[in-house]
């Protein structure tokens, strides 16, 4: 439930920003002409949403079970099958193939970087996959006391929403650190937006 609530928020944010980046012009086939890359696609929640927007979407994830679940769920919607594809791989492996370099109009990676060891290199590899003047959307958990309490003590230890050990607070990334990674990858930070899940109202 929290994932779906966040996903709705993210997709709307991305949709609005993609339109804004196109000077506010939306032709009937605007989204159909966009190539999207979902890095760390998991079960495909975001990939399917981008496909419903019309984007030609590739979701990548290194976990075989995640790709299996995503593909099985995708089969329930025949219209999306032509829009969304999945590949079991990492971003590092993907951009070794020249076919995937400078290919995508935008890339998204949601709550993935806090599980990555070499975070700066991870961002650089995402940047390699995106076209010049393309967009990258990144979402992560800020390294704050609140995030530790909510994502580890509450979500893992008390409520069991996710298995214990899923998150490592030492890998959480504050906005200014993420900004530096993005800039070192050759991109500019255009906007930063915070969000917090409210379980009572959601």
From TrEMBL:
One of its GO terms (molecular function) is polyprenyldihydroxybenzoate methyltransferase activity. Keywords: Methyltransferase, S-adenosyl-L-methionine, Transferase, Ubiquinone biosynthesis. The keyword S-adenosyl-L-methionine applies. Gene3D superfamilies: Vaccinia Virus protein VP39. One of its GO terms (cellular component) is mitochondrion. It comes from the Eukaryota. NCBIfam families: UbiG. This is Hexaprenyldihydroxybenzoate methyltransferase. It comes from Euplotes crassus. The lineage of its organism: Eukaryota, Sar, Alveolata, Ciliophora, Intramacronucleata.
């Amino acid at each position: 439930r929290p994932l779906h609530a966040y996903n709705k928020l993210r997709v709307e944010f991305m949709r609005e920003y993609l339109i804004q980046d196109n000077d506010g012009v939306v032709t009937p086939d605007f989204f159909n002409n966009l190539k999207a890359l979902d890095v760390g696609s998991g079960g495909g929640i975001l990939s399917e949403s981008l496909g419903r927007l019309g984007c030609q979407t590739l979701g990548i994830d290194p976990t075989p079970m995640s790709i299996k679940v995503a593909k099985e769920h995708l089969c329930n919607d025949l219209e999306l099958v032509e829009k969304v594809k999945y590949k079991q791989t990492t971003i590092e492996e993907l951009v070794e193939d020249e076919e995937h370099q400078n290919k995508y109009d935008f890339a998204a990676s949601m709550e993935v970087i806090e599980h990555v060891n070499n975070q700066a290199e991870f961002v650089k590899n995402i940047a390699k996959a995106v076209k010049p003047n393309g967009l990258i959307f990144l979402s992560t958990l800020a390294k704050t006391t609140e995030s530790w309490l909510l994502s580890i003590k509450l979500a893992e230890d008390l409520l069991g929403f996710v298995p214990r050990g899923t998150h490592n607070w030492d890998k959480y990334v504050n906005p200014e650190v993420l900004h530096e990674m993005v800039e070192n990858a050759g991109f500019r930070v255009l906007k930063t937006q915070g969000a917090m899940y409210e379980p009572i109202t959601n």
